Amino acid sequence: MGLPEEDFNSYATHRGDHLTAQRATFANPKLFNEMVRNEDGSVRQGSLARVEPEGQTMRMWEAIETYMNRKQPLIIIAGADYGQGSSRDWAAKGVRLAGVEAIAAEGFERIHRTNLIGMGVLPLQFKPGTNRHTLQLDGTETYDVVGERTPRCGLTLVIHRKNGETVEVPVTCRLDTAEEVLVYEAGGVLQRFAQDFLEGNAA
């Protein structure tokens, strides 16, 4: 395009534009998505995803657009310290705009967990000794979350496997306080603020 390198820009400087920031979600070229593998079975590095149920691998943003067009809600299954290094608000907002409604992980980075709740994403934590490997997940599964959400309560993650098998996995709801429950149930911190504002005016 003829643009000199010193005039290149970054996602961070455009974080006020929701379309740009949304597209930047999971755009890290060093990302390892365990649903995308090489022929030898190793995890393929890059901003890639596998769209289900077709099983087609494509760029992450294209996969997100595909699911958004279907209005198909998403869940992320993650390892320990999910969100580490992603404490900015957009790291959570981009996830929510991509259609992610819940994240089940072995653990969460403190600030990112709070930001997820503020964006209306439900954080779920596996019990010790349970993870994506022990559950033998391959990305073809669909999920339900069952139970009434109260602070740090036990919920059930229902896994529906492609072969018809159903597995019920106990998880901890990482809405840690009553206020976080209210924020999540409202749909996020802005929605919660709007509720309080409208209720105050009505009074």
TrEMBL record:
Domain Aconitase A/isopropylmalate dehydratase small subunit swivel, chain residue ranges per copy: 2-128
Presence of keyword Transmembrane helix: no
SUPFAM superfamilies: LeuD/IlvD-like
InterPro entries tied to this protein: Aconitase/3IPM_dehydase_swvl, Aconitase/IRP2, AconitaseA/IPMdHydase_ssu_swvl
Superkingdom in the source lineage: Bacteria
MF terms (GO), sorted A to Z: aconitate hydratase activity
Catalytic activity, EC: 4.2.1.3
Protein keywords: Lyase
Enzyme type, top EC level: lyase
A Pfam family annotated for this UniProt entry: Aconitase_C
Protein name as it appears in the record: Aconitate hydratase
Organism: Neisseria gonorrhoeae
Phylogenetic placement of the source organism: Bacteria, Pseudomonadati, Pseudomonadota, Betaproteobacteria, Neisseriales
Gene (name only): acn
